[in-house]
Design a protein that fits this description.
Blueprint: H1 10-23, H2 27-55, H3 58-80
Length: about 80
């Protein structure tokens, strides 16, 4: 595991110390967990944005519609069996 050194505003560091004490958790573990959650939220937002961009792209929409048509056809054939 690598070591990382950083500076934090005094107020944030005080809040970190308080929460770490309340949770009986080392500050570095609390920071690690918070960063993991934050990075996951960023990843989710990027994923959602990619869908928003794709929804505005006519070529992507056409491909999706063709795929749905094929899927619908497969469902109809399955029902006929």
């Amino acid at each position: 595991m690598a070591t990382f050194t950083s500076s934090l505003p005094d107020e944030l560091l005080l809040k970190l110390a308080q929460v770490a004490k309340e949770l009986k958790m080392p500050k570095n573990k609390l920071i690690e967990k918070a960063l993991e959650l934050y990075l996951l939220e960023i990843e989710k937002a990027q994923y959602a944005n990619s869908f928003r961009r794709a929804a505005k792209d006519s070529e992507t929409l056409q491909i999706a519609e063709e795929g749905m048509a094929d899927y619908f056809k497969m469902l109809q054939e399955f029902d006929e069996e």
